[in-house]
Amino acid sequence: MQARRLAPVLAVGMLATGVLVPLTPAAVAAPAAPLPGPGAQQPAWQRCSADKPAAFECASVKVPLDYGAPGGKKIDVAISRLSAADPAKRRGVLLFNPGGPGGDGLDMPLMMRELLPQSVKDRYDLIGFDPRGVGQSAPVRCGLTPEDLVMERPFKERTFARDTALARSFADKCRAKHGADLKHITTRNTARDMDAIRAALGEKKINFFGYSYGTYLGAVYTQLFPRRADRFVLDSAVDPKRAWRADFQLWAPETEKAYARWTRWAAERDAQFGLGATPGAVSKTFWGLVAQANRTPIKVGTTLLDGDEIRARMRAGFFVPSTATAAVQVLRDAAAGKPTPELPGLQMDEGFASALWTVSCGDAPWPKDPRTYRKEARRDAARFPLYGDFASHINPCAFWDDNVEPATVVDNRVGALIVHNEWDSQTPLPDGVGLREDMKGARMVFVDEGEGHGVYGSGTSTCAEDLTNTYLLTGRLPARDTTCTPDPAGAQKRRHHTELPFLTSTARAASGATAVR
């Protein structure tokens, strides 16, 4: 466990159109869960499993499926706990979310126990939970095929009708399997579940540590329950104004910026890597490989990659220049017929994919006319050739049922600590800046030239981790937004600096919160 690093999971971010659906009775704000007192739920804690530590306990909390009808159908939300190491110093509970949407969080206390200092573990019960629709909490599984699980499809005029049919089929399968329950698997309801967990644990307030999508969940909680939010750490933030289509589309222009930075980096090291002595020459090398693969797929290991697959697999790698450089070297060798290492499989888990789209489609309105997706994908393919067509292409949300509630507008002065790398591939920097603008009582810790998705526990910046620990221990936010620098390269432990760097595609990033990064 010492060598493991938590990989936050923002697999796909997607667009708020700005159009709010009319409020229905079910969309009326539900009351907060009761404060601790007589009649509150009492979780029946027991050892989670024989292969987990005896101190690691699990239970469940019953919550309404539809908070607009609290007397109706109930579902169980699975929770877990590692009690505070020093009861005399205990100050409350610290909930975690690993990201997603679709990441299961039941084992988060075990993972975070390896990352948090003893002083923090002394003071908090570490609480994990599977969000509704995920893992052991009324999981959504739509009966998908391997073809359904392909998350990134390039836009092509000749395949648009087929891609549209696949997106429609995905939505139809989920609707047939889960019916009206689907519309209640949303971030707003998961935030309400968090408040029910708070009440069941006998706490007046909760503390929270969310990665990636978990920052959006945490921000929504602060908006719905501002007086119940204590110390909130939001690592690798999502801008609520972009949830969700605009967030996915953000990947296209931000990848172009990362790509330009990479070409400069590689050109400065031409003597070492031989990819080109100028940024233009480096770019020519890359696009030459894409063009070659489009003519005849390049065999990497035993996997054939066409140019579109190279663009998709390389997208996140460009945010870490050493990663992109190593990847292009592998591609160049493969294109020359040299033996290369095997690529890992990128198959997404069905449960993750089902929950990902259910939450993303249910949180905010999406365009319903396939022609909108065709127009935007065609436009963005021209504007952002690396990834624009992928980012704007059609997906199941085009065929989802109408949202029960409007998208959550986050605009508050709740205190929180937002931590963000400058070169984050999954939640690019404009996301973090946007959340900081929305949460006016927060402070931002910005890691200048920080690379990768997820700051705390990644080995990127001791400065950022120390500020986070201070906040969790004392509740003191920095006096102002603060800039940190990365640790020296030799001190960083991110495995993606050294492993075969095709792991950074959307599918890999979505494969689970326990992946090593």
Topology of this protein?
Blueprint: E1 46-47, E2 57-64, E3 74-82, E4 92-97, H1 108-113, H2 118-123, E5 124-129, H3 160-178, H4 187-200, E6 206-211, H5 213-224, E7 229-235, H6 245-268, H7 270-273, H8 279-295, E8 298-300, E9 303-305, H9 307-314, H10 321-335, H11 350-363, H12 370-383, H13 388-392, E10 417-423, H14 429-438, E11 443-451, H15 462-474, E12 482-484, H16 506-509
Parallel strand pairs: 4-5, 4-6, 6-7, 7-10, 10-11, 11-12
Antiparallel strand pairs: 1-2, 2-3, 3-5, 8-9
Q: What is the helix tally? A: 16
Report the sheet-strand fraction: 5-15%
Computed over alpha carbons, the radius of gyration is: 22 Å
Strand order of the largest sheet: 1-2-3-5-4-6-7-10-11-12
List how many beta strands DSSP finds. Answer: 12
Order of helices and strands: EEEEHHEHHEHEHHHEEHHHHHEHEHEH
- Cα(first) to Cα(last) distance is 13 Å
Shape field: globular
Return residue spans where pLDDT drops below 50 for at least 5 consecutive residues. 1-7, 9-30, 490-517
Give the integer mean of the pLDDT values: 89
Structural class: alpha/beta
Main sheet attributes: strand count, strand direction, barrel closure: 10 strands, mixed
Written description of the protein model:
Helices cover 36% and strands 13% of the residues. It is an alpha/beta fold and 517 residues long. α15 links the parallel β11 (443-451) and β12. The radius of gyration is 22 Å and the shape is globular. Residues 1-7, 9-30 and 490-517 have low confidence and may be disordered.
